[in-house]
Amino acid sequence: MEPKASASAGDRSPVGQPDVTRLIVRVSMKDRAAFDLLYRQTSAKLFGVCLRVLNDRSEAEEALQEVFVKIWTKADRFAASDLSPISWLVAIARNHAIDRLRQRRQTAAGIEEAAEIADPALDPEALAAAGGEAGRIHRCLEELDTDRAEAVRGAYIRGESYAELAARHGVPLNTMRTWLRRSLLKLRECLER
Amino acid sequence: MSIVEDRLPDEGGDDLLAAEFVLGVLSAEERAAAARRIEAEPAFARLVERWEGDLAPMSAAYAPVEPPASAKAGLDRRLFPEGGERSRPRLWSSLAFWRGLAAAAVAALALAILLPFAVRPPAPQDRLVASLSAADSDVRYVALYDPAAGQVDLRHVSGERAAGRDFELWVIEGANQPISMGVIPAGETAQLPVEAEVGGRLAAGAKLAISLEPAGGSPTGLPTGPVISLGDLLRL
Question: What are the residue boundaries of the Anti-sigma K factor RskA C-terminal domain, all occurrences included (chain B) (predicted)?
Answer without folding.
Answer: 102-227
